[in-house]
Amino acid sequence: MDWAVLLAGGSGTRFWPLSSPTRPKQLLPLAGPRSTAEETVARLEGLIPPDRVLIVAGGQLAGPLQRRLSIPFANYLVEPRPASTAPALVWATFEARRRDPDATILSLHADWVVPDPAPFVQAARAALQAARAHDRLVTVGVVPTRVETGYGYIVPGSPLGDACRRVARFTEKPDVPTATRLLAEGALWNTGLFAWTAERFLAEARVHTQEVAPALPRLDRGDVAGFFREVRDISIDVGLLERSAAVAVITADFAWDDVGGWDALARVRPADAAGNVLAGTVTPVDAAGCIAWSDGIPIVLAGVRDLVVVEANGRILVLDRARAADLKQILARLPPEVRDLPA
Amino acid sequence: MDWAVLLAGGSGTRFWPLSSPTRPKQLLPLAGPRSTAEETVARLEGLIPPDRVLIVAGGQLAGPLQRRLSIPFANYLVEPRPASTAPALVWATFEARRRDPDATILSLHADWVVPDPAPFVQAARAALQAARAHDRLVTVGVVPTRVETGYGYIVPGSPLGDACRRVARFTEKPDVPTATRLLAEGALWNTGLFAWTAERFLAEARVHTQEVAPALPRLDRGDVAGFFREVRDISIDVGLLERSAAVAVITADFAWDDVGGWDALARVRPADAAGNVLAGTVTPVDAAGCIAWSDGIPIVLAGVRDLVVVEANGRILVLDRARAADLKQILARLPPEVRDLPA
Predict the structure, then answer these.
(1) Domains, chain A, ranges and CATH?
(2) What is the ipTM of this complex?
């Protein structure tokens, strides 16, 4: 049967000061009234029932997620520590197979914005079918709509049939010239939406993912804590997909955004006539091109252009929009008592 | 004897959202740890004793001022309504003469920043002496240090002796070309620091200030409320100084700023190496030329230039510094529920 594994980990500071360890990006109503995690679960309706949706999250997030999502409590896989995506997916795939030896898994993240669910569901269904039909780890690529240096790219290879192709190579976060060349070659954005049978995935991981595979006997014994103590942190892309020959890619056609930071808000929320994207009580007076988020305190933007202005969690950020991608480095330069948000 | 009349009226929105009707500019610690009103009273020490300092203020301000200043309560003249400076000074001068028939009055405002008190006191003493020696309404002019369109100017005329000159004319808030010409002619900034004998002042007001003088019998009867009902609002400059021939000007040499708005803060507070003037918990990261005031919530300024950023009274203002002088017009465009500060 089809299962979904929802990766909801990651503390994330890309929406500082709105995102916090207990309320990261996936719990924020970034694109509309519901959080991206709620939207993600809603998007699976009709494709995979809630009792076959597994959620991998850290301990801080399990409670907030359980309060928001209608997923059985037994389906929450609480990571003893964050260890990137390969250990999480090995554990979740192992667990799905324990419950259903014929499990086919759809792997997705809880922090994407997908405005139109129908083509997404169509692509997910196609990926699950391709994973079974070709017995491969299937990645879903979407056609890029801009030169984006923050995403990973998939260069498709020779056809396998059913619109499914081999993968020539993966390229993570290219610079602008490389990204431009990738677009010209027909490379696709790596959405992070994957499908595989549990059997094939675990077989490939045993061969290729030495950072994780030696710890698998721990899971056999039900020793999740030991598994996480033993594994080394590594992403599924680097630790498995880039190493395995049994990968494939299908091309999908849905609007998708991983909302990587404040600047991305302008892609997923409507703008006013002056190009301002405003959330909460924000009053623009001759302001243009600004992104502003008030979490309670009214903000007035007067005569300013191309700023990110955020009030949340007892902090105020005023940031040049052109520097929005550097937020992580900017935060590293703040004194801890300013950077660390009140609990 | 010498008396001081401290004008502390004016609700003022020029420091919105920090200034409020109950805590206007003169109660704010704009230039240092003490409010400008406290600094003003401290500056008079050794020149005029507290029991001869009269304070004219609106009802909302009397309490806050009394809590901060060591001035006898009987010296607070609480205006029944704001009516500009001529009625206030006529009343205060009348009251000083009632207490002391030989009163000479030094008139000053509670919202100036004067970094060095010594030359100020020297000028005030000279003005009081000149007022008695020449029996004139004596204005104090300082040599301009920049082309400033927000101030009034005094063009000195022929000498009267003792460095005291007649006034050729007053010019209020000139445009840039006019201000430039005034500087070339040797015009002085009209500080608003004045001195006069009560006798001469009331005689001149009776002749020239028809908006106020007919109401004087009310003060004779102790009917302050009736006086304020009867007078018409008019400033001392327009209502008396510009009309009287018995005016004079002395040139003083002290640093003086009326701190007319957020941009003026950069003249009265020290800047960091990047030209940022910051008050409260404000962290600049590659920010330059900004003026920021946090009244409690930490502010981060990242990669931005030439902004005014203020957090106070449950509001956040982000303003182009070049537009700082337009704050009044900007406020007029805000919805009342944003503009009006919580009580």
Answers:
(1) 2-252 (3.90.550.10), 263-339 (no CATH)
(2) 0.88
